[in-house]
Design goal:
This protein has about 270 residues and is α/β, with parallel strands linked by helices. Helix content is about 30%, strand content about 25%. Helix 1 links the parallel strand 1 and strand 2. Helix 1 runs parallel beside helix 10. It is globular.
Length: about 270
């Protein structure tokens, strides 16, 4: 391995973690190597990485930091602190996909500031995040997002169970939530990380308004964002093709690849 290469560890081998691991192990990003992975089932993880050309270690979460410069968190939201804290404490970077969990762990941002580490949230499914970030340099008056997902992409959300909302046999669109981004992240921790990313980029989780619909008439995850600011008014719409995990779009793994590529590129386009 080139000593100048950036070593990346991936925590979590669900649909996104596997797709990302495969691309990094194949050398798709020059100057970046996959050094280690962690997964709940280490035996299956070992079988998975054994197909790669280069050696990739299968480790516990606590062992990752010593083997990598950057960790990519692709795991259940409740594991976020355990995954990223060691890297932040060492002044390293953590790419976070469970952006919603960040809203409930301000101590991680404080740790990053103290240690010189960094938390990076990729664009993922949110088209136009650069525009929101730029608008936030002025004054944003309002941000609203309407998310529509096939019912399978919302099943298991705690908000549905807590409020007795059933999606079984649904034949027409049903609005299952309306509130702010913090409430959405709490009630749908695996489903609307895009809402948290939007809030962090713009006017915060309390002021960012979210609607969530279960829609049996669609097969893609759809997001419509409207922003009103003193510099621009804009509407963004994206239809994401789901990955093997219906809760997450394919573009999420590609967004992480793009972020890693940008880190080592001579030309960096975008805010």
């Amino acid at each position: 391995m080139d000593p100048k290469s950036v070593r990346v560890a991936i925590a979590g081998l669900g649909a996104i973690g596997k797709a990302l691991s495969t691309r990094l192990a194949a050398g798709d990003v020059p100057g970046v190597v996959l050094s280690a992975v962690s997964a709940r089932n280490q035996h299956k993880a070992q079988e998975f990485v054994s197909t790669f050309a280069g050696a990739v270690k299968v480790l516990t979460i606590n062992e990752l930091e010593a083997e990598a410069d950057i960790v990519v968190e692709c795991a259940p939201a409740e594991l976020l602190p355990e995954i990223v804290e060691p890297f932040l404490r060492a002044g390293k970077k953590a790419i976070v996909l469970s952006a919603g969990a960040l809203l409930f762990h301000p101590e991680l941002l404080a740790l990053a500031k103290e240690s010189g580490g960094a938390i990076l949230v990729p664009t993922g499914a949110l088209v136009g995040l650069d525009a929101v970030i730029a608008a936030a340099e002025g004054r944003i008056h309002s941000v609203t997002m309407v998310t529509r997902k096939p019912p399978g992409g919302l099943r298991g959300a705690t908000y549905l169970a807590d409020n007795g909302i059933s999606l079984e046999g649904l034949t027409e669109p049903l609005k299952v939530f309306a509130g702010n981004a913090r409430e959405a992240a709490q009630g749908f921790p695996a489903n609307v990380n895009v809402a948290a990313a939007l809030a962090l980029a713009g006017i915060g989780p309390e002021k960012t308004r979210i609607e969530i619909w279960a829609d049996p008439t669609i097969v893609r995850n759809m997001h419509e964002i409207k922003v009103d600011s003193d510099s621009a008014q804009f509407t963004m719409t994206i239809e994401n093709i789901p990955s093997e995990n219906p809760k997450t779009g394919r573009i999420v793994a590609q967004s992480v690849v793009a972020m890693l590529r940008k880190m080592t590129a001579a030309l960096r386009v975008g805010t």
